[in-house]
Design goal:
Elements lengths: L17 E2 L10 H4 L1 E2 L2 H15 L6 H8 L3 H4 L6 H14 L11 H18 L3 H7 L5 H16 L4 H20 L10 H16 L7 H5 L1 H5 L4 H20 L12
Helix pairs in contact: 2-5, 5-8, 6-8, 6-9, 6-13, 7-9, 8-9, 9-13
Length: 258
């Protein structure tokens, strides 16, 4: 049915739900200028925007502008921002590598899962906030949880303790990402450096007779020049703690079907 285009509809020659590539040459055939707007493309651009400017900056209207389409074009895939955020969360969960080496000792398998989670969180500044708030019921989230529980069952944990450790593993990854010195999804490098400098000065100027250890540790407490150490140390502490607890349980043989 023909309709009169509204002022914010897609440009003439580009159907709603499609966008012309920025580098398409002028006068090129329509088929080469148009790129169909897939759900994957929408989520991908949304992640870029959220990582760069934060989740608050991510709106349907802003995302449509970034993609060169009208907001209505995005409603084919996501009816509202809540559904869009669920799509982002599913993508983040799917990036976790759950293909563990079952021939490796179970602590190495658990470490691999946690390290993969941390890599995703470090690559996407917007992921931590989203995974904290979002439901953990998407297919990719369920798969990551299932594999983690299997690893822990092989380590001798019963369902109750395996569940507790699996939850703690997620929160450990989130805590490490959000406690990295200078963490701030929307901070520039200059802002982050200035924040760390001020924090360091505040600690160094504390009364040394009352806070001698804090004054002594002002530099390492606020340093952000070695984030790899921050994550490696945090993961080591978690894995060694879980291993110590595992000594209280008998190993439970567990294998996946199919």
């Amino acid at each position: 049915m023909a309709t009169t285009p509204a002022p914010d509809t897609a440009p003439a020659g580009i159907p709603e739900g499609t966008a012309a590539p920025a580098d398409a040459p002028a006068g090129a055939p329509a088929d080469t200028q148009r790129t169909r707007l897939s759900k994957t493309a929408v989520v991908g651009r949304a992640i870029v925007l959220a990582d760069a400017e934060g989740l608050d900056a991510l709106t349907i209207r802003r995302l449509a502008q970034e993609l060169g389409v009208t907001p209505m074009a995005l409603y084919w895939h996501f009816r509202n921002k809540e559904e869009l955020l669920s799509g982002l969360a599913e993508q983040f969960w799917s990036e976790i590598d759950t293909d563990v080496d079952e021939a490796a000792p179970w602590p190495a398998q658990l470490r691999a899962l946690l390290e993969s989670l941390v890599r995703v969180l470090r690559a996407h500044p917007s992921a931590s906030q989203l995974l904290i708030a979002g439901e953990k019921q998407s297919p990719a989230a369920l798969e990551a949880t299932e594999v983690t529980l299997e690893v822990l069952r092989r380590g001798g944990f019963d369902p109750q303790h395996a569940s507790a450790v699996a939850r703690s593993a997620l929160w450990t990854g989130l805590m490490l990402a959000m406690s990295e010195p200078g963490y701030g999804p929307s901070l520039t490098e200059a802002d982050r450096a200035e924040h760390q400098r001020r924090s360091r000065i505040r600690l160094a100027m504390l009364p040394p007779d009352r806070y001698p250890c804090l004054v002594e540790a002002a530099e390492p407490m606020t340093a952000g020049d070695d984030p790899d150490f921050h994550y490696r140390f945090g993961i080591d502490v978690f894995i060694r703690g879980v291993q110590a607890m595992a000594g209280q349980h008998e190993p439970v043989p567990t294998t996946r079907e199919g």
